[in-house]
Specification:
The chain is built from 11 helices and 6 strands. The protein is an alpha/beta fold and 245 residues long. A 6-stranded mixed sheet has the order 1-2-3-6-4-5.
Amino acid sequence: TGLDGADIPEHPEYKTLIKQQDENYLWNIYQKIISVGRPVTLIATGSLTNIALLLKIFPQIKNSLSEIVLIGGCIGIGNKTPSAEFNFLSDPDAAHIVFTSPHVPRLVMVPLELTHTVCATPNVSERLRSLASPFSSILDHLLHFFASTYKQVFQFDSPPLHDPCAVAYVADKDLFEEQMMHVDIERTSEFCRGRSVCDIFDMYRREKNCVVVMKIKEVEQFWNMMLDAIELADKKSPVNSTKSN
């Protein structure tokens, strides 16, 4: 589900809302983007199936995009196979479409090498739990749902945080170091399917099609920004009132 590990109250009209979105989701995404009236940043935090379809069906979306920032890929070792990251491995063909599309003004990839440096340490957990609300409890469960897996498989003492890194990049690009390079997506290899081939040293001399975010300068600054946002959301969260009722 993408939210395993958390007890989230179900909205009474949830199933109806989801059915409506399933039937019209691409059109809804397109309309939402063009209705802004200026080029927008599109942030992708999962496999790129929907984004690839959007670019194929509505190529004119280029006029309404400033950039696509995505979580996915890796320069080195993957987290689903030795060579591939989960999102790209889920749909390598979609990733290939996005990375080769002429309809993306600017493409930014936030790889595992970056997200694996942003970990929910005990200090972070303590600050989150100090809110002592149902909303903060849900987030704490989500942050630590894969903690044991990361410890057993990857020897991480604290679980990393992935998706918010893309949002943080958009919010404060000065917090990150980046490099423009050519990135290919492997789709057919027996052992490397879903691999993001990052030509860091420009060995192929191909057109540089992607900005790869290489490093976050201040991890503590990221967490301060993240926890400030969580505190604001906590004050407005309907989950807190739902639980109390």
